[in-house]
Structures are given as C-alpha cells and as structure tokens.
Design brief:
The protein is mostly helical and about 70 residues long. The chain contains 4 helices and no strands.
Length: about 70
C-alpha cells in the first residue's frame, strides 16, 4: 500500500510543503486553544461547567420561554 502512495507522491511538485503546512495548522490551532483557555474568564468557565449538571426540565423551560 505504501508503495502506491509513495509512487504517486513522487510525481507531485512541491509535495514536501504539505506536511509543513499541516504541522503549522496543527500547531497554531493548539496554541490558540491554550491561549483561549488561559485568558478565558473564570465566570464563563464556571457557567459552562454547570451545563451538564442542570436538570433537563429547567433547560426545556428556558428554551420554551425564549
């Protein structure tokens, strides 16, 4: 299987650029995620952390009231 992939990739000009681009996207995504985590407001984190603990009836009432 690798032989078929490697043979096709050898014919593409500049194919070495794709792994570099994907690594940059991966790295920038996680840097942005860490930045968001460390700069997020504590009140927002607490509010979001309570969502799984809310009663289903209270969420249904909130959505019908809107």
């Amino acid at each position: 299987m690798l032989k078929f992939v490697k043979g096709n990739l050898e014919n593409i000009d500049g194919v070495a650029l794709y792994p570099i681009i994907s690594l940059l996207i991966f790295f920038l995504f996680f840097v942005g995620l860490f930045w968001w985590v460390f700069t997020a407001k504590k009140a927002h984190i607490k509010e979001v952390s309570r969502i799984p603990l809310e009663d289903k009836n209270s969420t249904n009432q909130k959505s019908t009231e809107l």
